[in-house]
UniProtKB/TrEMBL annotation:
Repressor found in the keyword field: no
Record-linked PROSITE patterns: ZF_DKSA_1 (PS01102), ZF_DKSA_2 (PS51128)
Protein name: Transcriptional regulator, TraR/DksA family
Residues forming coiled coils: 29-56
Start and end residues of each Zinc finger DksA/TraR C4-type domain: 103-138
Family annotation (Gene3D superfamilies): DksA, coiled-coil domain
Keyword check for rRNA-binding: no
Matching InterPro entries: Znf_DskA_TraR, Znf_DskA_TraR_CS
Molecular functions (GO terms): zinc ion binding
One Pfam family here: zf-dskA_traR
Length: 141
């Protein structure tokens, strides 16, 4: 079955841990590496934009009223949130590559069962099956 263009184990015998072919693993690696590089590029651009924004703020704060200050704070918060999100997603892609290298990609970190292919198609960096992810989210709330 394809995951964002890469073949991963389906429901047959190849779904068993460790039975992906070298070609399948190479295809998955290319997809994950491309995603990591894309996220890394987005992150670096966001850092550069955030730096420019802060430099403009430093030189342009004189005479600001409350609305101007509030707008700048909102922009700064949005930029910081974007940086955190991109960094988290980049880290997830990096972790998925490491799991692929050690042979655990596609298996749940919680219960070790295979993550459904449908989940990996939507979220190739998934590290938990739907059940374990739901339990984790309930505990966090």
């Amino acid at each position: 079955m394809l995951v964002n263009g890469a073949v991963v184990a389906g429901k047959g015998a190849s779904a068993v841990k460790g039975l992906r072919s070298t070609d399948e693993i190479d295809q998955i690696r290319v997809i994950l590496q491309g995603r990591f590089e894309e996220l890394n590029s987005e992150y670096e651009e966001a850092v550069a934009q955030n730096t420019r924004l802060r430099l403009v703020e430093i030189g342009d704060a004189a005479g600001d009223d409350q609305a101007d200050s509030g707008s700048k704070t909102a922009e700064r918060d949005a930029a910081t949130s974007l940086l955190k999100t991109l960094l988290d997603r980049r880290t997830q892609a990096e972790h998925a590559i490491a799991r692929l290298n050690d042979g655990t990609y596609g298996n749940c970190e919680g219960c070790s069962k295979p993550i459904p292919v449908e989940r990996l198609e939507v979220f190739p960096s998934a590290t938990a099956c739907v059940n374990c992810k739901s339990v984790r989210e309930r505990r966090a709330s």
